[in-house]
Amino acid sequence: MSSERKALLEKAYPEVLSFCRSLGLVFEVVDLRWGIRNVPSGDHESCEIFLWEIERCKKISAGPAFVALLGNRYGHRALPRLVPEKQFEVLLSKLSKNPEGTNQLNQWFLKDDNADPPTYILQPVTAHFPHYGDLQPENRPQHDNNVSLWRSTETQLLQLLRSAATDAEATPRQKVKDGPKRFAKYMDVATNGLLDAEAQGLLAGLKSRLYATSQKILNLHSVELTKGSIDPKRKEHAQYLDGICEQFVSQMKSRIEARMVEEVGWHIAMSEELCRGLHGREGLLGKLCLAMWESTNINHKPLVVHGAAGIGKTAVLCKLAQEMRGVLDTGSVVAIRLLSARHPQRLDVDYVLYSICLQICLACGLSPPSPLTANTHLELLRFFRNILAEVSQQGNTLLIILDALDQLSDQHHAHKLRWLPADVPPNIHLVVSMDTNSEAFANIRLKLETLESFFEVERLSREEGKHIMESSLRVSQRMLTPEQSNTVLQSFEATGCPLHLRLILSAAKRWTSFTPPTEIHLGASTQEVMSQLFLMLEEKHGKELVGSALSYIALAREGLLEAELRDVLSLDDDVIREVYKFSLPPTPSLIRLPPLLWARLRWDMKDQLEERWVGGIAAITFSSRHLVEAVSTRYLTTARRGRSLKILAEYFMGRWSGKLKPVALPSLSLLLSDRKVPPQPLWFAPGLANIRKLQELPYHLLHAGLWEELRQEIIGSAEWLYCKSRVCGVSSVIHDLDQCSQYMDCTETTLIRDALVLIKPSLDFLHDMSLFYTELLARLSSLATAFPSVIGQLCSQCSEWLLTCPEPILIPKCSFLQQPGGALQHTLSGLQGGVLCMDISVEAGLLVAGSDDGGVAVWSLRDQQLIHTLLGHTGQSEVIKCESSNSLDRFLDLHHDDDVLSACISSDCRVLASGTADHLIQVRGRQSSRARATCRTVQGEREDTLQEGGDTKLVTGNEVCCLELAQHKRLLLCGLISGTVLIYPLAMTQETLCIPPPESLSRVLCLAVTSKERHVAVAYEDSVRLFEITNRDNFPTVEGPLQSFPLSLLHGQISSMALLCDRRLLYGTSCGEVKLYDFSSDSSSDLESHRSRVTCVTASNCGSHALVGSEDAVQRLWALSPLGFFFEGVLSAAFSDTGQFVFTGSQDRTVKVWDVATGNLLYVQYVYSPVIRMLTFKNGFVALSQQGYIIKEVFRCPDHISPDYNPLRNVKAQYRVTSREKSQGGQQSPVSVYCLISMDTKTNKTNQRLAPSLDDF
């Protein structure tokens, strides 16, 4: 049936593949006879492999799992490789009168007492015919002779077994009229040229059974052969082949159904698999269960299971989960995540938390996390801790098991384990595991302090290893001789490692009772055993095939589908040359790896490879990360790594799909052939992306050094950037570009990455394609001329797509949104409430901010990632100071008798001053590792000293408004409500300096000292004054005011400020304004304002950057040199040149387009700043934003707008509803509900039209 197979491969399979991809499915064909010559393998395992593959297909497939092509030939009937002992002895008894036959059977079948029950095993052909598998040209005669001898021997053995199995009379034989050679491949013909009547009888019986049981799915064809074969050039033969392909395609499409595999089920199934054969851990499991039972009704610490790599931590946790499911109540929930099972990929901590939260919510009937929560690390962490508290209050028992925390990715500094709760509420049990030598273990030791929560998994003893060995062999129905058992245990005893023992047993299961001791080689370590495994595979399957297959699996980010692996191996010319080293491919124009070769290798690595479900499809990965490391060490040399990565990159690009790839085979100089690899489009169908390409291609292009292709296919492709942002999240695209920047010196990559960072807050919740292209174009178009190859190409793609958009759209014609590389570098969000205070530590690279709901967040300035959250505050966080320390987990309890209104801390973190509402200033000195207070007191402008238990306090006659500390000059500056500024030299306990109040007696609002402590700025209600800090006779003095400038009463009061060394003052007001005043030039400029009171302005020591935060929960990091100028804002509008549309610029920072005739809203665009002026420009407008950007856009409106079009689909809002519900005690308790709403102008529940009109705004 070779012609039919070839027709299906060329015509039918690609069409079914395309159909499956459009449904999000994978189509794989496993034709184990394709590409194989008629010489069977000498190990007799082919039939077992065929049946095993069929069972795997039935297990995995969502649709048809088996297709049979049945002609007039029954086919080769191989000898059985395994014959049970009792059955074989019965057969021998029937041959008692044939001693030669009995001797021949005993020569080829040897008894294996290691099998349970004992079994007779057919010996490999090479045991008696050593040249059977020798394909060297110089040994060709011996090979041909051995093949002929084996065929004769096989026939004799079959006859002996058949004659012994049945007493049926021989069927009369019929001579083939046209000769044996012509029809041998279409009918069963014996070596003497006669029809094999027995085979024909078996074929007739098979056809009868199929017709009786499966008539509905049978397709019958009849065709007349031409010269004994199928000729595709003949019309009737071509129609016959086309008919087969059409029937195959139509029936496959009708039977394919979708299939979903949940992650929760996968983790449970994997844990049950790992539990089998666990021995010797009863004591450890008992200690874990006892610790959980004792802490059920109290707050407690998480339990930590640790040990060396491969010692069996995962199996212990899986067994714990299994045991607890049987002990806990019916309503209890057990959530287990095996993080090491996802190697080589390292999971993000947010992914793990979201998965756990979702499972808990579904199991306990709670509301699942919202999209807003899922996309924000801080919110997800809040949700996780809240859900634990809620389940605890309900009284439900919850067990969370997280295996291998050291295998998490570095995202959000997960290895520091700040996300892991140190106190677990009652009824909740949290068990984690990690490598003893990992960074995660060192951090959790510091976090938990006591050793009661730590449980070490120790090495196994010889006796425990013996129990595991016996249990594993019993499950496999195998045994070992005493000598073999002793050899296994001696090798295992050297390490006591379960992984070592598992690898040894994988090899020992292949030993027979007659295996010579000289053929048994066991390494003294895990690495040696793996090396011997690789050596055995290379000898049996070929070094190039083994090395390439394992390398591709190790290099793939999330494993490879078997279809992908066969395709990639077919593209590897070194593998193809090894496969066809001594013979030509069956069809030289179509060269692929014969599927049987991979199936045989997969069969021999059943214990080392596993199927992992990724996005509903099964991928092949290694069963242990230690195997990945061993493969990398042995095979992934620099040359092979580069070559393999290039082949993977070309495959996922679809470079060779439908094209001829050259290869030089040993017998040919150069051959062009089709490798039959599928195309790799970015979208399989509308809305259905090629996820495998999105996951794998960037990594392989980067590390293969194909940087030009990377720029064109990934970095400079607008469709790619949007597709991956939508499917995998903007963070994944930013991560890819970060990886590129580490290896490539490419300015364009950095600029595009920064542009996506600026767009990310919108794209995290909105996945509209027009929004993505519009924002990208509005931020990058001005850079297109300077960077034409990448950014220019990207902008052209955006413009072309917007011009063909089927909906109303504004098309940017210039850059008018914040550009990458400009003054604004990052916008950080995450705090739920308004930002009241913040601080930056340049040395530690940290930014700390506090909000009015008590939340405190810590970001890393290096990657702008949220790395820590402090959720223990109940009131507002009004004062924040960031220490230059390696740990944020230690706090000082500094008690005050009244509200703290202001505070500051020295740069060396040894002096802390705080001002309270009771007119006290407390100055605390930190000595060694403990906080001890040393204080002084001044009342009004008169100095008094009060002693209280060793502490000294500064008492002022007026309320302290603000504090500032000059660390190097040891000065504490206190601004009073009276307008006076008191300066306390900390080195001179009895001295006080004073800056008298202004004539207007305005109160002091803010104080700011330069980083070099040469100047101090004092902000009053009506002015700002600059003073100089000097020394006179070794005594600090303050000279001035040197300069001042008035403040308009129409503007908000200064709420926070920072003084730069070049006499520039950056300040924010209570109205949200942010201004930069230059004392040297007496000029000022406006920065982007905030929507509410500016609460903190902090500048870096060098004055190059500043961070401004406000109560609107937004922090902006500014680069102060160079700085653009901005303008005041007003509302504006302009008509289109035709008068059909009107454009409006609103204070809500949007541009809206309205239909003049109907008053309907057509389009809304968020431009991040109010538009202060608009002028008509062709079919669009030119506008000026409050930030000083010139906006130039054209409006394109199609003739027909879909009735489903919603102009407000990209407008989303978050709101909080606070109400009070009456409790049982009669008291009311506040209840806050957070919601994320989307503007939908289609219909409401009563089907009323909600389309807005011009009057609504």
Automatic annotation (TrEMBL):
WD repeats: 828-869, 1087-1118, 1130-1164
Record keywords, A-Z: Repeat, WD repeat
Natural source organism: Monopterus albus (Swamp eel)
Top-rank taxon, per record: Eukaryota
Domain NWD1/2-like winged helix-turn-helix: 528-639
Descriptive protein name: NACHT and WD repeat domain containing 1
UniProt xrefs under SUPFAM superfamilies: P-loop containing nucleoside triphosphate hydrolases, WD40 repeat-like
Domain NACHT: 302-471
The UniProt record lists the keyword Metal-binding: no
Keyword flag Ubl conjugation: no
Record PANTHER family: NACHT DOMAIN- AND WD REPEAT-CONTAINING PROTEIN 1 (PTHR45013)
Gene3D superfamilies recorded: 1.25.40.370, P-loop containing nucleotide triphosphate hydrolases, YVTN repeat-like/Quinoprotein amine dehydrogenase
